[in-house]
């Protein structure tokens, strides 16, 4: 790979980031921290494109959501990447990228699926599996801004083992923070008293009742889950124009 270049403010231009940290989140899910030579800035929910170039010139590129907000005060970027066994980019990253490796990328990209402090509505974040990645960035950005409008996260995952950001969303005592609702669809942790099923109308109704006004919703996850949840939210009375959806990870 090439040596690093200077980061510019143009999100469409390719530049190199140096890997400074690798953190396993769950089986087949890792967070990679990249350092640049100028500050990084993006809105929560935006993503970056990583491009790999083979010796014969063949290129493959994939999009990955930023896992942390960045307001320009730091020169680091964190992306959480899911391993897609039949993919072209993630297997290379998992098998070859180490501390000190450099990857070519551009961004931030995408303006549809974002949260900014200008959003004054209360918010419901709904994530399935690795779809929680951009929602986690929104949650942290919301906390950093000390926003008064409530924001809650509903996170659906197969088991405790499959959770991303367990250290934040499901601490050692096994109790999620007040703004996080967990549901396990296959295996529940020992002593778990919370939901243990796929997201359904009853679950959403119970959560929506905790809001004084109907919230804006952000839904991210596998396509079938996103489509089903979006339909349930509309049936529950949410304005379709205030429901943002993004497909993430496997479509199966």
Q: How many angstroms separate the termini? A: 33 Å
> Which structural class is indicated by helix and strand composition?
alpha/beta
- Count, helices: 5
Form type:
globular
Major beta sheet, strand line-up? 4-3-6-1-2-5
Strand count, sense and barrel status of the largest sheet are:
6 strands, antiparallel
Mean pLDDT metric: 91
According to DSSP, the number of beta strands is 11
Helix content: 10-25%
Strand content: 35-45%
What is the string of helix and strand elements? Answer: EEEEEHEEHEHEHEHE
Alpha-carbon Rg, integer: 18 Å
Would you identify the regions where 5 or more consecutive residues have pLDDT less than 50?
A: 1-8
Description:
This protein has 252 residues and is an alpha/beta fold. Helix content is 18%, strand content 36%. The chain has helices at residues 90-96, 132-145, 166-169, 201-208, 223-235, and strands at 15-26, 29-42, 47-53, 59-65, 70-82, 102-109, 123-128, 151-157, 180-184, 216-221, 243-247.
Summary?
With 252 residues, the chain is α/β, with parallel strands linked by helices.
Sum up the structure in keywords.
11 strands; 18% helix; 252 residues; alpha/beta; disordered N terminus; five-stranded parallel beta sheet
Write the layout of secondary structure elements.
Layout: E1 15-26, E2 29-42, E3 47-53, E4 59-65, E5 70-82, H1 90-96, E6 102-109, E7 123-128, H2 132-145, E8 151-157, H3 166-169, E9 180-184, H4 201-208, E10 216-221, H5 223-235, E11 243-247
Parallel strand pairs: 7-8, 7-10, 8-9, 10-11
Antiparallel strand pairs: 1-2, 1-6, 2-5, 3-4, 3-6
